TrEMBL record:
It comes from the Bacteria. It comes from Luedemannella helvata. The lineage of its organism: Bacteria, Bacillati, Actinomycetota, Actinomycetes, Micromonosporales. This is DUF2180 family protein.
Amino acid sequence: MFCWFCAKAARGTCRFCGRGTCEDHARFGPYLLVLNRSDRRQRTEGLVVEDALQCGTCRPRPQPIPMPELD
């Protein structure tokens, strides 16, 4: 796989969009893996990876999108 930006050999893929990224164009940021709802504490907690690979071009949406067709 090649880097989406410069066509060098990619070192990884963006966690959000899957674009190949070389070490020069790689960005890092948080990625939410799982949400858990605790019955005892009545709150939702998330398991987050702090340094997930990101390409910097894609823009993950900040808010969830309703998908009633999956209910």
